[in-house]
Specification:
Layout lengths: L1 E2 H4 L3 E4 L2 E12 L4 E7 L8 E5 L3 E4 L4 E3 L6 E3 L1 H6 L1 E2 H4 L3 E3 L5 E10 L6 E7 L1 H8 L2 E4 L4 E3 L4 E3 L1 H6 L1 E2 L4 H8 L4
Parallel strand pairs: 2-7, 10-15
Antiparallel strand pairs: 1-11, 2-3, 3-4, 3-9, 4-5, 5-8, 6-7, 10-11, 11-12, 12-13, 13-16, 14-15
């Protein structure tokens, strides 16, 4: 599993030539998959560039290699309006089907072999994260993405589990027996 936040700034190579660095992840919210990656805009570039997930030969935390230089495409304005970027969903609220606040999206975890988004890392704010740690929400059919929020049903809320981090757990581990 790979986290979106780990790939930001990762160098991208097309063939043997460096094409740039990852700036953002493009999501297919209907299929809950990674559709591609947006490259950073360089000084002389007039347009944004991207590549699709299907063009990747190797994806790791150290580098991403795409098949050929033509796989790096120009992002047109009309295309950009139709795309959903991970950065746009970060900090969006996650609500259950009763409109109860669950948390905010902090990161996305996906399978590098097929691009399926597997988990959303849920944050409950700085103090909540420090005390209880962040939580993982498995992305199943019960998770829906929109431009303003991420909606889950009651069953999905029950699937959220702790990452076992946070001061609360650390204090319990380091407390002397009474």
């Amino acid at each position: 599993m790979v986290y979106w936040s780990e790939l930001i700034g990762t160098p991208v190579y097309a063939g043997n030539k460096k094409a740039g660095h990852v700036e953002d992840m493009i999501l297919n919210t209907k299929e809950k998959k990674v559709a591609g990656f947006l490259l950073e805009k360089r000084n002389l570039d007039l347009h944004r560039r991207y590549f699709t997930f299907n063009s990747i030969l190797y994806a790791g935390k150290d580098r991403i290699v795409v098949k050929e230089p033509p796989d790096i495409r120009i992002l047109k304005k009309a295309q950009k309006r139709e795309m959903v970027f991970a950065e746009d969903l970060i900090q969006h609220p996650i609500l259950d089907n009763r409109d109860e606040f669950v948390g905010r999206a902090a990161d996305f975890c996906f399978d590098p072999s097929n691009g399926n988004v597997r988990e959303i890392i849920v944050s409950n704010g700085l103090l909540g994260d420090l005390w209880s740690g962040r939580k993982k929400l498995p992305v199943l059919s019960r998770v829906e993405f929109s431009g303003e929020l991420i909606q889950i049903n009651r069953d999905a809320r029950e699937e959220i589990y702790s990452m076992n981090k946070g001061l609360k757990r650390w204090i319990r581990i380091n407390m002397p027996p009474s």
